[in-house]
Specification:
Layout (H helix, E strand, L loop, with lengths): L5 E6 L4 E6 L6 E8 L5 H5 L7 E5 L3 E2 L8 E3 L2 E3 L10 E3 L2 E2 L12 H8 L2 E4 L3 H11 L2 E7 L15 H5 L5 E3 L5 E5 L5 H8 L4 E5 L12 E4 L10 H10 L6 E4 L1 H10 L3 E17 L5 E12 L8 E7 L5 E6 L4 E4 L14 H9 L1
Parallel strand pairs: 3-4, 4-8, 5-9, 8-10, 13-14, 13-15, 15-16, 16-21
Antiparallel strand pairs: 1-2, 1-11, 2-10, 3-11, 6-7, 12-14, 17-18, 17-19, 19-20
Helix pairs in contact: 6-7
Length: about 350
């Protein structure tokens, strides 16, 4: 018989939700955010951009297809976006103790316990989502009856990029062209998408001086937290902008590129997280449904005159990408590489490769 322990989620405004545990049982705290995706919890949990956050899923069921095995192919994660879970906890309405998928080797509960990550269910996630949409993303903590209390932790108060980035230079793939990938907390499918296009990828830490490397193009990855902490990354990219080698950024990479160009960023009220975020390519009527995971955005009013917006969000008109008017520099705030989809915008990788 499964032993179920009760737990309490307390938001920073004092509102509490009582739920049941299906993961590791320890007190924790972080920024409470919601994700509107219907699938892809192995990829979301292993996405470094969720570092320090308590993830609330709006889709009502979690765990029904279990967790695939952890494998690597030439040093690149298969089935996951990194080597471990990064969020502090995950919360759903209903957890499926019985899972079914031909690829699954364990339950979500087993994975969370192994990684020492909290999981709660039997909580009204719709109510939490409505609170966050109204009041904005807020801090929260999870406590258990027989555990100590925990202070509120704000992940945006420190340099999360430094925590999520690799610590040494790593090389992947082979080809006639070389791409330097600045790791701000990279999702491994970005590496896969580049390697699949037959280029050599040199992954470097967030603060690495890549000017010493002979490369054909520069790629700036996604990452967690406030981009303003990644000052050394911004400075390194700023120096690269004086040249003419192609540069592309994704998610935080869009923010880093924009700040290197002279623009500013701001914190969104509750962020964009999910697989159903609509964007429009500026100057056209082309719209795309995209996967996104970010809490900060570029202030479009601060974009310098030699740059222009490339994409905008159809829900709130926030910036979703920029491009230089004459040089081969561009970026996207969304994730064209997203697993588990959609893949409508993977042409961004093709466009980047064609510029090398």
């Amino acid at each position: 018989m499964q032993q179920i322990k009760k737990a309490i989620l307390t938001l920073e405004n004092g509102i509490q939700f009582v739920g049941k545990s299906f993961g590791y049982e320890m007190p924790c705290s972080g920024e409470v955010v919601f994700n509107t995706a219907m699938t892809g919890y192995p990829e979301s949990l292993s996405d470094p951009s969720y570092l320090g956050q308590i993830l609330v899923t709006t889709y009502p069921i979690l765990g029904n297809y279990g967790v695939p095995p952890y494998e690597e192919n030439n040093g690149i994660c298969v089935n996951f976006e990194s080597e471990k879970i990064h969020c502090k906890a995950i919360i759903c309405q209903d957890y499926s103790w019985d899972y079914s998928h031909w690829q699954a080797t364990r339950s979500l509960s087993e994975w969370l316990i192994e990684e020492k990550v909290v999981g709660l269910y039997d909580i009204d996630t719709r109510a939490i989502t409505k609170i966050i949409r109204d009041k904005g993303a807020m801090l929260g903590k999870i406590t258990f009856k027989d555990t100590d209390d925990v202070p509120l932790y704000d992940p945006n108060s420190e340099n999360l990029v430094a925590k999520a980035s690799c610590k040494e230079v790593i090389e992947y793939g082979a080809g006639d062209k070389t791409v330097v990938l600045v790791d701000c907390g990279v999702k491994h499918n970005i590496i896969r998408c580049l390697v699949d296009r037959r280029v050599k990828v040199i992954r470097v830490p967030w603060d690495y001086d890549f000017s010493k490397i002979a490369y054909d193009g520069l790629f700036i990855s996604n990452g967690p937290g406030d981009p303003n902490y990644a000052k050394q990354t911004i400075e390194n990219v700023r120096r690269a902008l004086s040249g003419d080698k192609p540069i592309c950024g994704i998610c935080m990479g869009n923010q880093i590129l924009s700040m290197a160009a002279g623009a500013k960023t701001y914190k969104l009220k509750y962020g964009h997280r999910g697989h159903n975020q609509p964007v429009r390519k500026v100057g056209t009527n082309k719209c795309y449904i995209t996967s996104q995971n970010h809490g900060f955005a570029v202030d479009s009013t601060t974009i310098p005159s030699d740059w222009e917006e490339l994409f905008i969000n159809m829900n709130d008109n926030s910036n979703e990408g920029i491009r230089h008017k004459s040089k081969p520099f561009f970026s996207a705030q969304f994730h064209p590489e997203a697993c588990s989809g959609p893949l409508d915008t993977q042409v961004i990788f093709d466009d980047f490769i064609s510029l090398l």
